[in-house]
Amino acid sequence: MKILIVGGTGQVGRDLQRALEPLGDIMAPSRAHLDLADPNSIAQVWEQYRPDAVVNAGAYTAVDDAEAHSDHADAINHRAVDILAQLVERHHGWLVHYSTDYVFNGQGAEPFDESAPKAPLNIYGRSKLAGDEAIVASGCRHLILRTSWVHAPRGRNFVSTILKLAADRDHLRVVADQHGAPTSAALIADVTAIALRRALANDEISGTYHVTAAGETSWHEVAQFAVTVARKRGAVLTLRPEAIDAIGTADYPLPAARPLNSRLDTTRFRHTFDVALPDWHDGVERTVAGLVAA
């Protein structure tokens, strides 16, 4: 089987190359080779590889920049996804696509399940929702995996940013009223391999699922935990965890509105694929270990 990983050099994409290797021949073109903003580039890569499955880890994820560049965000998160879905349907393949908690309104305190009403708060969320809807409308066999708060030892993410700031700052203010589950790129890749293997043998598995690490926390708690772990592992940091102040979202205004509730109900995924999802602390500790060792 030939598997095309879109966004294969990104945070999730690199782990996907490792996790999916036992399933078949992996093709992971660079962003220079496959430009999601260019429909011709997508078509050319498809003709070159003719994959049996596409795993789309490519996305426009600059949430604040999307407010000023809505067309570019839509081109990558919606229109490119629509093209991929149409190609997969036409050639009877499978499409794995990653979505986000940002498709919901972020209200309340209960985890959102897959059927919860969609009401994105910002342009990024609307572009991702449009991509989800295009996949379903195409009729292709698919796994839409919604996740949240992705982190890895490489690339830009919240954990790496906190440790970079902690190296030379003695005080930070971090939002404490947004709640969710930090989810590692490695976990996403590993469960993708499990899900895709099952899906290849059962078309009825096609659908949307929520996948995050277990448990819930706030950005403030993640920051304190990351700094604590890094210091225990020998990182030389100016910042101490107790010097990270908890603030509200209103105290840290950004161009794009953020959901206060990013909790996702993973029941459907766990039951369908018979997997246990590890606690978020495990993934963050591994990411911190990788960052400290780098």
Topology:
Elements lengths: L1 E5 L4 H10 L4 E3 L11 H11 L3 E4 L6 H4 L3 H21 L3 E7 L22 H16 L2 E7 L2 E2 L6 H9 L5 E4 L3 E2 L2 E2 H16 L6 E4 L6 E2 H14 L11 E4 L19 H7 L6 H14 L1
Parallel strand pairs: 1-2, 1-3, 3-4, 4-5, 5-10, 6-9, 7-12
Antiparallel strand pairs: 8-11
Question: What's the quick description here?
Answer:
It is built from ten helices and twelve strands. It is an alpha/beta fold and 294 residues long. The two termini are 34 Å apart.
What can you see in these coordinates?
- The protein has helices spanning 11-20, 39-49, 63-66, 70-90, 123-138, 158-166, 185-200, 219-232, 267-273, 280-293, and strands at residues 2-6, 25-27, 53-56, 94-100, 141-147, 150-151, 172-175, 179-180, 183-184, 207-210, 217-218, 244-247.
- It is built from ten helices and twelve strands.
- The chain is of the alpha/beta class.
- The radius of gyration is 19 Å and the shape is globular.
- The chain starts with a strand and ends with a helix.
Oligomer: single chain
Query: Largest sheet, if any?
Result: 6 strands, parallel
Tally of DSSP β-strands:
12
Percent helix among the residues?
40-55%
- List unreliable stretches of 5+ residues: none
